[in-house]
Design brief:
Strand content: under 5%
Order of helices and strands: HHHHHHEHHEHEE
Number of helices: 9
Structural class: mainly alpha
Radius of gyration: 36 Å
Shape: elongated
Helix content: 55-70%
Number of strands: 4
Largest sheet: 2 strands, antiparallel
Length: 230
């Protein structure tokens, strides 16, 4: 019995023949040949090894995002500091000017919640618009100022197209307690106040401006006047 047990050997599993391996590779080659010129598409949808995301990789990505965002914020702050020097001696003075103007605009439009939270994006938008309005005003003014008859042309130069009625209403709001109410000469600060009252800056957060409505003749789409394309 012992001899018989020793003579019995475990059956070895059949090894895959090289022909079967070649046949599999031939099948893949045949698939690629059938695809023809679209081999790139076949390679894209072909199964690949998945990339393992570990804690170290997540930490590296987070650190890189923080570095890039910090660099972008510093660059934006430097840009705002440079722009602020055009409007005033320092950034604090310009921010105070911005807050006072936002307060006046909200008060004229009947918005009683005049608390202002400083947002650098909104501040930059206000500075850019103010500089643009001042540049356009300088092109039309004479040594005294701008004539009232040239007011609509000045608004058109700035990319705004209000009606005569809207211009008259804003004139009354800005010059409510001013001696220049009946004057035919408009100063630069009054003209810019009229523009910001009729077209409030982003920092005012005016969702519905009753002074400026969209009509068939002068449509407003997404806050942009369509009359300038006519």
């Amino acid at each position: 019995m012992k001899k018989e047990q020793q003579s019995v050997k475990p059956e070895s599993k059949p090894k895959p023949s090289p022909k079967s391996i070649l046949s599999k590779s031939d099948k893949i080659d045949n698939k690629v040949k059938r695809i023809g010129p679209h081999i790139e598409i076949f390679q894209v949808f072909r199964g690949r090894k998945k990339f393992a995301i570990t804690k170290n990789i997540i930490k590296m990505v987070t650190v890189m995002q923080a570095l890039v965002r910090g660099w972008l914020e510093r660059k934006r702050f430097q840009r705002i500091m440079t722009k602020a020097l055009y409007h005033g001696p320092d950034l604090r003075t310009v921010i105070n000017m911005y807050c006072r103007q936002i307060h006046r605009v909200k008060y004229r439009l009947g918005l009683w919640r005049t608390r202002q939270i400083i947002n650098l994006t909104e501040l930059e938008e206000w500075m850019d618009r103010k500089k643009f309005y001042e540049t356009m005003f300088a092109k039309r003014e004479d040594w005294q100022g701008l004539e009232r008859s040239e007011l609509l042309k000045f608004f058109n130069d700035c990319g705004h197209f209000p009606t005569h009625q809207q211009t008259g209403e804003v004139w009354g709001l800005v010059h409510r307690e001013d001696r220049e109410k009946y004057s035919n000469i408009i100063k630069k600060h009054n003209a810019i106040e009229m523009l910001f009252t009729l077209y409030p800056p982003q920092g005012a957060h005016v969702s519905t401006n009753l002074r400026l409505r969209s009509t068939w003749l002068r449509p407003i789409v997404n806050g942009e006047e369509g009359y300038k394309y006519i």
